[in-house]
Amino acid sequence: MNEHQKSSAALTGLTVLFAGLALAFWVTPRAGTAVTHGVSPAGSVFTNAATVRLSVADLTKAGGDVSGLDCYACHSKDKPVAPKFDAAGVLIPSVAHRDVVFSRMNCAACHAPEEKVELKFDPEGKVIFPVAHTNDLPRHGRTIGNDHCFNCHDSANLTELRTAGGKKLKLTESTLLCASCHGPSYRDWESGVHGRRNGFWDAKLGTNERKDCTSCHDPHAPALPLLKPLPAPFRAASKGH
Amino acid sequence: MAANTHLPNLAAHAPDAGGTSRRSFLRTSAVATSALAALAASLAPLRELTEFSSVEEFLQKHYKELTPVELEQALGRVRREVEKQFGLRPHLRDLKPMDGVEFVYCLNLSSCIGCRKCVHACVAENNQSRSPELQYIRVLKMPNGTFDMEKGDHHYKTPTVPEKGFFYMPVQCHQCKNPPCVKVCPVDATWQESDGITVIDYDWCIGCRYCEAACPYFARRFNFAEPSIPKAQLNLDMAFLGNRPRHKGVMEKCHFCIQRTRAGKYPACLEVCPTGARKFGNILDPTSEVSQILRHKRVFVLKEEVGTLPRFFYYFDT
């Protein structure tokens, strides 16, 4: 084999090698081995910084419609609520309200004024709750004695609140009412440790917005509701390990 | 005579000895041409590199060596690239650490309900790839009474949370004071800034993934494929060391939302947390929430024994 044949053979070999490489690149999918899948849903629901509920205070501050929260939709203004107390001074709940606090309900929104609502009672004499009113059942320390409407509400003026110490507060000042029992939580809330803060951590650059107790806690059922979790991370199909 | 007979012989052997015959020239050049064509075809995939590696990017210096003029040029290049890719002009800035500020994060495990709002708010804020999916925060569902991370599950799909008998522990970058990820980086593409945030120069990262291996919290994520973000979901408020779009082959991780926190705002994960479990602020300010927590609550850090000195504290409190 002379020089020319040698170089020809080398060139041919290289040609075959590179042609093979080109073919290999051509047939190999370019996506690589990373897992790709459908784009997960996103949007305002994931970035919405709203609280879990809307309190009367927030609604009032925002200038929203609070007519549906009017206590006097059911109670007459001319005839103040007359709570009855037993000999020990403990409130005797009226039969109609024994188990219920119409917290966010305007009765007239569902019941016609002339409609006669018949209450059903269980053998112990407690009102059996209609399903529609499940949310109105107060769950705020019921088992430890906090079952009196007028522990918090002012019996003389339902649009106001009254602490156990007799201090009158507006509905928008409910945080101070909560503080009258929940001292440590209030202390932490004051310093920003409990509850939500939004906006700016640096007060020099913008407002540090703090949320009230009732922005997250329903005063009649303070435990936070169960939430539906957002989607789990995508997991590639198991490949045997 | 001898000379006469010798000359024709020389002429007859000329092609082999020094000249080139027409046939062999054509054959050799045909083979050489096809060899070059095959070489070019085999190198064709390299052409795709030009899509994300401009000369400007290739010549760009390390972030810390950029002069103000060069930094402005780099910002301009990224703006042009984002505009070319998404058709939207980003609000891209380079935010420097603030004086007298060191960021700390506190998370109340009693309050966290595992709703994963933080995970998705983070993805939306920081322009992480949607497909393949890349997330900075993992929410571990842990059975009560243990801190054995192997018992944690971050793929839980219960219809509602929280589930009885479990607590939820979100894990993200802990912005350690003694960060192992920074130590192992062979090219100094990641470092700790004076406000405590460990950042990455996405243009300097070579994608070796040493930092991912070094991190005891699995906080770092690698772009195995070219990230994809729907145009409508792109967050245009960007920081150079923060949430500007990344390319395939680089690392990324939580950076405490530099584009928000260095402008005085809370991070996105805190902003959406429905329970107020997340607390963030300046530890050098004695009146900040995090200072109060570190003073008054029993905080702990994850994997204290590995000596990373995290700036991310967990605590249990009603």
Report on this structure.
- The complex is a heterodimer of chains A (about 240) and B (about 325).
- Chain A has about 240 residues and is α+β, with helices and mostly antiparallel strands.
- Chain A is elongated.
- The model of chain A is unreliable at about 100-105 (pLDDT under 50).
- In chain A, a hairpin with a 5-residue loop joins strand 1 and strand 2.
- Chain A is built from seven helices and six strands, in the order αααββαββααββα.
- Helices cover about 30% and strands about 15% of the residues of chain B.
- Chains A and B meet through helix 1, helix 6 and strand 5 of A and helix 2, helix 5, helix 9, strand 10 and helix 10 of B.
Q: What are the SSEs and their pairings?
A:
The complex is a heterodimer of chains A (241) and B (318).
Chain A: H1 3-27, H2 44-47, H3 56-61, E1 84-85, E2 91-92, H4 107-110, E3 160-162, E4 168-170, H5 174-179, H6 183-191, E5 197-199, E6 208-210, H7 213-216
Antiparallel strand pairs in A: 1-2, 3-4, 5-6
Chain B: H1 2-17, H2 22-42, H3 55-59, H4 68-86, E1 91-93, E2 103-108, H5 117-126, E3 138-143, E4 166-171, H6 180-184, E5 190-192, E6 198-200, H7 210-214, E7 221-222, E8 237-239, E9 251-252, H8 258-261, H9 268-272, E10 278-282, H10 289-296, E11 299-300, E12 312-315
Parallel strand pairs in B: 1-8, 2-12
Antiparallel strand pairs in B: 2-10, 3-4, 5-6, 7-9, 11-12
